[in-house]
Amino acid sequence: MSTIEYACNSCGWVYRASEQSGAEFGDLPSEWTCPECQGDQDNFTINVPGGLEGENTENNGDSPSDQDDEDVSTLPISQRVVYTQKLEASIFELHRQWKIGDLNVQPYFQRNYVWSAKQASRLIESVFLNVPIPLIYVAEEPNGTFAVIDGQQRLTSLFRYMDNAYAISGLEHRKDLNGVRYEDLGREMKRHLENYTLSVVQIRKESHPDIRFEVFERLNMGAAKLNDQELRNCVYRGDFNEFLKRQAKFRPFLELFGLQEPDPRMSDVELVLRFTAFWDQTYLNFRKKRLNKFLNEQMA
After folding, report:
1. Whole-structure pTM value
2. How far apart, in whole angstroms, are the C-alpha atoms of residue 20 and residue 28?
3. Which of 28-37, 43-52, 98-107 has the lowest mean pLDDT?
């Protein structure tokens, strides 16, 4: 049974599978709502209480490095460790980290920046109205930099505005801001925008990869759900992932499947991965395994 908790963004009520007859949050019927405020499931986010960093490390004093020789993929989900840290960061600081390359807002995600000018403008308006903005999730890379897991559209909108890439438009509450670029703001309003803090959850690099995969999957349950290969694209970043995407663009390969360009949902990339998995691990290692696990192991 998963130990991950989900908190209602409206009333703070916390969903725990152990208290709900073991029912996992992702398996709840679509009509289920928060028992306190009747908010729908899209209103819930993973709960990261204070002091969660390093939770579940009390395994006879062993550190993650002490477990390198274990087959951690066989551990029950409750023993797979997730290391997280929750912090508050100003828009100015996040923008600075992005500028110097320490924060990657679009690492290897399939989806590009898709927000309209009106959506981006409403976000900026929310900042000036002091409306809370949902949590930002980032994952630590081996080199200590961070990649955005959830919040790409929000951060990109904020950063583009600070770089004068667009003017605010389509606002109804703060109509005085329509047509205004960042460079047009007075010093007081610039200070308000720059000092506005966002809640950021960092998933540390020591976290068990299976837990990270599950977290990414559940973060994307509310919107257009990522398929398995899109999730792998988020989780297993690196040279091999880029190799798979390059092969999927090979013109004869595209013609074989009647495609003019790569599939936006990465089904073609998964086909390449399947080939490499069976070539590398052979069908003998596929026995008694689910295909997803087999392909995840190849990506890892």
Report:
1. 0.51
2. 10
3. 43-52
**C-beta separation of 11 from 39 below 8 A:** yes
More confident residue, 182 or 36: 182
Coil, strand or helix at 136: strand
Question: Pseudo-torsion of CA 293, 296, 297, 299, nearest 10°?
Answer: 160
**Nearest Cα residue to 76 out of 263, 264, 214:** 214
Instruction: List the structure tokens of 106.
Output: 């679009």
Q: By three-state DSSP, how is residue 88 classified?
A: strand
Question: DSSP code of 177?
Answer: G
Closest alpha carbon to 232 in 209, 262, 258, 252? 209
CB 227 within 8 A of CB 266: yes
Question: What does the DSSP 8-state code read for residue 134?
Answer: P
Task: Determine the distance from the C-alpha atom of residue 243 to the mean position of all C-alpha atoms in its chain, rounded to a whole number.
Answer: 22
The DSSP string of 26-87 is GGS-TT---TTT---GGGEEE---TT-TTTT--STT--GGGGTTS-GGGS-GGGS---EEEE
User: Has residue 165 got a pLDDT over 90?
Assistant: yes
**262-293, pLDDT tens digit by residue?**
887 888 899 999 999 999 998 888 877 788 88
Token pair for 167:
């003017």
User: Side chain identity at 177, as an amino acid letter?
Assistant: L
Q: How confident is the model at residue 195 (pLDDT cuts 50, 70, 90)?
A: very high
| Helix (H), strand (E) at residue 6 | strand 6-8
89 vs 37: CA distance, rounded Å? 29
Chain centroid to CA 69: how far? Answer: 29
At 211 the pLDDT is 60
Helices (H), ranges, 220-290: 228-235, 239-248, 251-256, 267-281
Q: Give yes or no for a contact between 121 and 171, defined as CB atoms under 8 angstroms apart.
A: yes
